[in-house]
Amino acid sequence: MAMITIVLPLEEIVEGMELDADVMDGTGRMLLRAGVIVTEKHLRIFHMCGIQELRIRREGADEAPELSAEMLAARQEADDLMRPRFRRTDLTHPAVAALFGECVERGVKRSRWSGASPHA
Asked: Which of 48, 76, 85, 107 is the most buried (most CB within 10 A)?
């Protein structure tokens, strides 16, 4: 099997996963380099800094499953719907970024589980 990169929300990251990309905070400060194995301490820091998702390296099939394309489309649609609602906010602020990410995730879950549009 080949190594693939997946993007997971912070809530789905567990200790022992390997980062595929550097992790930067909202100000551009590097928190952790690619290739590092995630620990519980890292997860706490990511949460405090408002990190919403991480690129993780793992073994997998040579191609991502079709669901990934659907999930990506649902995430993009939810992001596009939420962004105007946050237009007067500072999305680099950790609290605002966390709230925005939660709104996007809820939109994705709503569309994925109900088959409805994220803004329904």
From this structure: 107
